[in-house]
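Why does residue order matter? Because the sequence determines the fold. Keep that principle in mind as you read this record.
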Amino acid sequence: MADKSAKSPRNGKSHQLFMGVDGGGTKTHIALMNHAGKVKCEGFAGPSNPLRVGVETAVDNILKAVNEARDQDGVSRGDIVAATLGLAGVRRADLRQRVRESFIKRIGVKNVLVLTDAEIALYATTLGKSGLVVIAGTGSVCLGKNDAGKIAISGGWGPLAGDEGGGVGIARDALHAVAKASDGRGMQTELSERASEYFRASGPENLIVAIYSPQVDNSRIAGFARLVVESALDGDKIAVNILKDAGRELGIAAVAVITKLKLQDRKVPIGCVGGIFKAGEILTKPMLETVRKVAPNAFLTEPLMPPAHAAAMMAMRNVSNSNNGGR
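Structure:
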């Protein structure tokens, strides 16, 4: 049987596909969009934050997601004419370049742009206009842009120096609470039982062995945040307080960006992206209260499209700009 990837039907617009990638510390989402702006197929795979998993593993997972998408629709790699990769952990220019070179070498697409996941999420929220996006997934980061095109960022420091309000930060605070409850230094919480089950420990007193196992990485720790959200929605006071604190931290990050961009008096949209926002008002109410102390007209919103779709649109725009001499 002939390999579909060997075909190269690039002889017309109808065969051109634009690839968008949204890659984080837990999963990768790719979308292939045609010239009419319709998403033809999508794929998913494991994490593609190169700072956490390495460049080659990140590119491996991107390609796995591409292959999953191709299997759905029978498209060829040769149909892909441009790609925008929006990845967590690529704030350093040298790391972006290494990812770009590896991706080009392995997939053959020459028109490739590597951005942060926050940049594609911001485009998904504002379509290039003034505004902010707050990402709270495995980690946390806030990115904003004003009418003059100035960009500002807050957060994105990773599990050791940051991730407040993100999955790792929330899980870390929850484990602190469980440790204190186990020792008698803090209030009892249903998080103790949930943590024991999630990390496969026989009880809270044995969590110390489970959480420091070599198999427990940041992605696994961040996954515990989902159970913190569930406990908060069930009314556990400790879990509720953890999420309220997380909301305030995300609000502080947004305030820092708003201040840098001088958007205090604007009706600025703040896109909310990431699984942590499934907590709802427990998280978003203190977040918005914190923001409105500085920017009273700011408001929270959902992105207009998934970030992977926005990245595909950016790839298409990049080709159009190239064809028009950058105009």
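The chain is about 45% helix and 20% strand.
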